User: Fold these one by one.
Assistant:
Number 1:
Amino acid sequence: VRLVESGGGLVQPGGSLRLACAGSGLFFRRYEVSWYRQAPGNEREWVASISRGDGASNYVDSVKGRFTMSRDDHNNLIYLQMNNLQPEDTAVYFCNARGHSDYWGQGTQVTVSL
């Protein structure tokens, strides 16, 4: 099983990025899939999830209305569309797939700065 994130980068406040996570060796639709982030000196923080069953999405309060998580079952990808990014969103973002086992990607850096 391998998860690979992409799409991170440097963006100015108010800007947007779309992160992607490609999965191999598993089907995302069979797992609860999530995005987490970790800023320097902080613990890893849950950001958003899509449930395995009904595909409902949930978000941490600090990103509600700005971030949208989606799942592409045909291509086995998950996305995190991030709009109106702020400096406090700066972190390494990780995708996660949780079922009988727990799988993580290596992370992609998002930096929001002038």
Number 2:
Amino acid sequence: QLQLVESGGGLVQPGGSLRLSCAASGFPLDYYEIGWFRQAPGKEREGVSCISRSGSNTNYADSVKGRFTISRDNAKNTVYLQMNSLKPEDTAVYYCAADLQLVCDSGARRLGELWQYWGQGTQVTVSS
């Protein structure tokens, strides 16, 4: 069974950067579309970004477009989320998710309930 482990979260000042990693084990990651989601206290889960199996197709929420970049290294079984120009409203627990059948587009990115495998999450806090 595919297992996902996120890392790279932490405390950063507004305007700073973080790079999150999602490491997979159990199956080759290139079988799966990967998505990043986040959930802040008292708010609904938000689909942040997704990337296709080959990495050739990506999709971003408007709230992060131009600031976040998703990428993958299938040889390392890892997907990354580079987050720049961070804002306090980016504070949340960030989760990666994987699915064998989905295709990364705006619909799949938004609908977390469609994704089969989930990591445990990593906390990102943006505060001065």
Number 3:
Amino acid sequence: QVQLVESGGGLVQAGGSLRLSCVASGRTFSKHAMGWFRQAPGKEREFVAGTRWTATNTYYADYADSVKGRFTIFRDNAKNSVYLQMNSLKLEDTAEYYCAADPAIGTMTWAPSGMHYWGKGTLVTVSS
């Protein structure tokens, strides 16, 4: 049974940093696209950052414009894990953060509806 388990959320002041972790189990995810999404109260789930395997046998990272330059996604295939380093956090980063994975290779739209596996989320609250 495939499981994605997030951790690392919490309360942080604006300008601070957090690192989210997602550990996958049940299969190997080294060639899977893995991403982070978030959902704030009253809003739709949105893409934050993703890492995908490409046809040139490399990983490529994609970021939402709102987090470029502040967030970094990276993966450790030996641990079947993906991480999201979040720096310079803003109040608007407050949300439930979800890890997701999909077996697709190459260009991704990163639409939430297209992701095959989901974790249950970890809450990030940024305070002023």
Number 4:
Amino acid sequence: QVQLVESGGGLVQPGGSLRLSCAASGFTLDNYGIGWFRQAPGKEREGVSSISGSSSDTYYADSVKGRFTISRDKAKNMVYLQMNSLRPEDTGVYSCAATSAKGSALYILTIMSGMGADYWGEGTLVTVSS
């Protein structure tokens, strides 16, 4: 079965850290652009970060720049989102998506925000609260 599965969410205090994982089954993530998205309660989904298929380019939304890091482990067929210095406004359901489209990290995040993703995960909940 072809799917993406996120894990690593949970409850964390402000200032804390979490590492989210995006695991692929049924296909290899090699050469797929990967994006992380989040949706806060009552808000639209927003693109947080992305990594190009070649892993040569990454993108971060201004709201997370300097705090979040996206990375890929080809041997494990995983993509990670390391989240540090978490804030209450980072709360939301985080989902990963994969696209076979080629281009910059910003480009692939943009097209996946529309209809350009080949696969989506179900999401993992991150709650930042004291």
